[in-house]
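We close this part of the discussion by returning to an individual protein. The sequence in question and its structure tokens are set out directly beneath this paragraph:
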Amino acid sequence: MSEFILNAPAGANKKKKIVGRGSSSGRGTTAGRGNKGQQSRSGGKVYVGFEGGQMPLFRRIAHRGFSNYPFRKEYNIVNLCDLEVKFTDGETVSKETLVCKGLVNKLDKPVKILGNGDISKKLTVAVDKISTSAKEKIEKAGGTVTVTNE
């Protein structure tokens, strides 16, 4: 006998439910739908959240104000302490170099530098956004900052 005979697990292959084929078939008359009511009719469905005619919850609750959620911008966050560890003196910090050093996974989101930690190296930073504290710390260390997209 071969090791490569594949069988479906028990209960994986079920027989198709055939309904409405007379009372002796086991699923005649009501065809497994029960007796009367909206669910027993053809085309009888209720939408998600239907409460039997009662005013649904999503219509009872007041919806007010504005949500910025659909318009928010997500950034790849990099802290100064990470730049201190990964970069040497005189290097350029950009999206591409951050990906090469493993600080950012993908280039799909813009990059923002935050001022968490200290920096002592002279770096040339060219990113999409930077916090004011990070900008001050980089310039204090002798580096330069250019914001490409604001």
The CA atoms of residues 8 and 125 lie 58 Å apart.
